[in-house]
Write a structure and sequence with these properties.
Blueprint (H helix, E strand, L loop, with lengths): L14 H4 L18 E10 L3 E2 L2 E2 L6 E10 L3 E9 L3 H4 L2 E14 L2 E11 L11 E12 L2 E10 L9 E11 L5 E12 L3 H4 L6 E13 L2 E10 L11 E9 L1
Antiparallel strand pairs: 1-4, 1-14, 2-3, 4-5, 5-6, 6-7, 7-8, 8-9, 9-10, 10-11, 11-12, 12-13, 13-14
Length: about 250
């Protein structure tokens, strides 16, 4: 199952293969569960936390997890966290808070809109590192296939030093009568978070992509994906790599 925008594009780019969700109408819901409110959770261990193709864990493994609360009206709130290696300013933890609305607007078409707050608890109290980012996506389902297009825009904030636009598309396909799913992702960044710029180049735009596959068994899912970005290749940061993720959803 593909994620909506969040989960660090939802948990990492590896999540496209591992199927972890965060802020989305695709909250793991039990249709037989009574009541207007549902609560779901996810945990994961990934070999590399890649955010839009860029490693935030210095190429090392990361532990991740989140909790989502959704209402039958389509509104939801949630939180998600990951271990990182962010140096003195960003510290060792990323904590995301988000809320929004998601629902079907036509047969096979789901819209998701919300606001995300990136929070980095750090020992460096004076560091300006937290920022907001609104997001929106539309998912189209046809049988075992799903396509998603989305965008996120972070306006100029003290922590960013400029604005940033992210556009992306995801494709997913579940192989009939099997627990196997295939996925593909293509993203484009224009702004201060562009992979080439983060890697020291002068170009403030660039692409990221991934191809992946996953296999599910009950609440567990194991995914593997190949992740790449445009721009200078820095080992453990912007180099192409293979990411494996083991996740569980409850």
């Amino acid at each position: 199952m593909l994620t909506s925008f969040r989960g660090k594009l939802a948990v990492s780019l590896a999540a496209l293969a591992a199927g972890i969700t965060a802020p989305s109408a695709a909250l793991a819901q039990d249709t037989e569960e009574a009541g207007p409110v549902t609560v779901s959770a996810n945990v994961a261990l990934t070999t590399d936390y890649r955010f839009r193709g860029v490693s935030l864990s210095n190429g090392d493994p990361a532990i991740q997890g989140g909790i989502d609360v959704g209402h039958e009206s389509g509104f939801y709130v949630g939180t998600w966290a990951s271990s990182i290696e962010g140096g003195d300013a960003y510290g060792e933890l990323e904590l995301d808070l988000y809320g929004g609305w998601s629902g079907d607007v036509a047969e096979g078409v789901t819209v998701d809109v919300g606001l995300l707050y990136y929070l980095y608890p750090s020992e460096n109290i004076g560091a300006e590192v937290n920022y907001f980012e609104p997001y929106a996506s539309a998912a189209f389902t046809l049988g075992p296939a799903e396509a998603t297009v989305g965008a996120a825009y972070a306006w100029d904030q003290d922590s960013l030093g400029g604005d940033n636009l992210y556009l992306y598309s995801d494709l997913g396909f579940s192989l009939p009568a099997t627990p196997i799913s295939l996925s593909a992702h293509l993203g484009y960044t224009d702004g201060v978070l562009a992979p080439p710029l983060l890697a020291g180049d002068l170009d403030d735009s660039g692409l990221d992509w991934s191809l992946g596959a996953s296999v599910a068994s009950g609440p567990l899912e194991l995914g593997i994906s190949y992740v790449g970005v445009e721009g200078p290749s820095i080992d453990g940061f912007t180099d192409d790599t293979i990411v494996a993720t083991l996740s569980a959803s409850f």
